[in-house]
Design goal:
By secondary structure, the chain is of the alpha+beta class. Helices cover 21% and strands 24% of the residues. Residues 159-316 form the JmjC domain.
Length: 316
């Protein structure tokens, strides 16, 4: 809670908070009896759910390309296979293990902010701050069929739980720099030498509605799979019906007014849907170890096909 509520604490305050949290975790752990046997529970499903048919596949590199090749490919999105297969989060310190995640969140007592509802575009959408163990139990391991979706989305989990930060590595591509067609050099949302990291952890069928971001993005998949669909902003934006300034003065122009997805077409009004269907897109399935590069400004829609844990890296 100290890190969540303090916003952006200075280096000395952050160090103090992290030291106190680490000591608290050690003290609490000393009172816990040792587990009689390692937990065999896993977030990885034993049987994969059916994935949507891919008709307009994303460009895919079967192995990580050179920096030079990466810099000449920034105008369009692409998947890089095995980009993060070496991460401890996928190997020796697996994030697919609930026991491992609990062991680094003070036995699940660490508080995390959760988005409640289908997506941030829904009127019923809201947020809660709850213990990580409660989130894991109620929304990931034992969700009630009648309960709403809970999603740990776009959260700087790694400043709150530094031990998990040691399980991943920033892709070298994030330190490369090359302005592309969609870049706006005047946008200064990110003014830092280090990419911004965010965690995305949720159950099957969590989604991010069709939207754009003002920075480059590499989305790395750690647990489960995600379906991704992307639209070129230079040619397809008029058919995506961007929202405008809404009640309360909130600017939603970076979010589409269409509920896109491989299941949602029937939910939209016929005239809008018919126009939207004319928009061209590319799509793909992101699997554990894969990384997806998303250029600045590209419209993208994301839906998890399984329980999913991803990390995004944003940079200018």
């Amino acid at each position: 809670m100290a890190l969540i509520m303090s916003g952006a604490p200075g280096p000395s305050r952050r160090t103090l908070i992290e030291r106190l949290l680490h000591q608290t975790h050690q003290i609490c752990a000393s009172f816990l009896p040792p587990s009689p046997s390692p937990s065999l529970l896993t977030l990885a499903p034993p049987h994969l759910a059916p994935a949507p048919a891919i008709t307009s596949p994303l460009r895919t590199f079967l192995k990580p390309p050179s920096i030079a090749t990466f810099l000449t490919s920034l105008s369009h999105p692409f998947i890089v296979k095995s980009l993060t297969s070496h991460w401890p989060a996928l190997t020796t310190r697996p994030w697919s293990s609930p026991a491992y995640l609990l062991s680094h969140t003070n036995s699940g007592k660490r508080l995390v902010p959760i988005e409640i509802g289908k997506s941030y575009t829904d009127a019923s959408w809201g947020q809660r701050i709850i213990p990580f163990k409660q989130f894991l139990h109620e929304y990931i391991l034992h969700p009630s069929p009648s309960s709403t979706t809970g999603y740990l989305a776009q959260h700087d989990l790694f400043s709150q739980v530094p031990a998990l930060r040691n399980d991943i590595a920033v892709p070298d591509y994030c330190y490369s720099s090359s302005y592309t067609d969609g870049d706006d050099p005047d946008v200064d949302d990110i003014d830092t030498p280090e990419p911004l990291l965010n965690a995305w952890f949720g159950p099957k069928n969590t989604l991010s509605p069709l939207h754009t971001d003002p920075y480059k993005n590499i989305l790395c998949q750690v647990v489960g799979r995600k379906y991704i669909r992307l639209y070129n902003p230079h040619t397809e934006t008029p058919r995506l019906f961007p929202r405008g300034v809404e009640a309360g003065g909130v600017d939603m122009s970076n979010t589409s007014g269409v509920e896109v997805g491989w299941r949602e077409g029937r939910e939209n009004k016929q005239k809008i849907w018919e126009e939207f269907k004319k928009a061209e897109y590319v799509e793909g399935i992101l699997e554990p170890g894969d990384g997806l590069f998303i250029p600045v400004g590209w419209w993208h829609y994301v839906r998890s096909l399984d329980v999913s844990f991803s990390v995004s890296f944003w940079w200018k």
